Amino acid sequence: MRAVSAVGLVLHPQRDCGHATETIATWAHARGAVVLGCAQDVGRTTDRAVAVTPEDLSRRADLIVGLGGDGTVLRAMRLAAAGHAPVLGVNLGRLGFLAEIDVPELLPALSAIDEHRFTTEPRSAVSAVVAGREAVAFNDIVLVRRPGHPSAAVSLRVDGHSFVRYLADAVIAATPTGSTAYSFSAGGPLVSPSAEGMLVIPVAPHSAFNRALFLSAGEKLALEVLPTSGELGVEADGRLVGAARPGDVIDVVMRPAAARVIRLGGTTFYQRAQRKLQLTGSAEAE
Hints:
Blueprint: E1 6-11, H1 18-30, E2 34-38, H2 39-42, E3 49-52, H3 54-60, E4 63-68, H4 70-80, E5 87-91, E6 101-102, H5 106-114, E7 119-130, E8 133-137, E9 140-145, E10 152-158, E11 161-168, E12 170-174, H6 182-185, E13 197-203, E14 213-216, E15 221-225, E16 232-236, E17 239-244, E18 249-263, H7 269-277
Parallel strand pairs: 1-2, 1-4, 2-3, 4-5, 5-6
Antiparallel strand pairs: 7-8, 7-18, 9-12, 9-16, 10-11, 10-15, 12-13, 13-14, 15-18, 16-17
């Protein structure tokens, strides 16, 4: 990572980030670096931050710090995907999978960045064009049944060939990062973030085939909304980005290494999963 001349801040929309943002601003200004934030964030952070557009933050920042939970870190990663900066996730409140540190560890983490005592971990994204606009997600793209409408009837095409049809409440196309999110709650497997591929899983399936698929990063996925389907919402990382109607085809594209997250060597993915999910061994047979 090149010398930090600009730090981008991405804040949780409700939680108090004041102490953390002042710590970052003091560290940045001591090094002659500017602190950047989007307009909705700057108004509730340090008075030493400069309001910029999301595009300018992505282009100018050498480091992006996400202060909040997983949703905030995902937003930071989406901004990073348009630029070159790695993302440092700082947890505020509940333990998140994506945050690397808690607030008390922030100053030592910034010192480690100064001294280049860190690594970066690439994270894949998935993208789809919906209503003429590209939607990028680091967790998942989801086709979901609208309330009061029939179930999602979706045909999966892999590399142009029809493979299977799902009748379900939703169909999820998730990254390995997203395997711990909606996909996991739907019964999907945990997937190492270092894996390269796309997980496809139905939610509450009504069809005979109810298993998840894991595609390689190079395979092309198309989701065709069948004539028997209701109108579906299209979500990217939980954000509603459009609608899909019978006859529509949504191409979901894997974007390997779309962003990088900073790792300081404190915990592994498996340790975070154990803590977050309260995993223990199987009960011993008596």
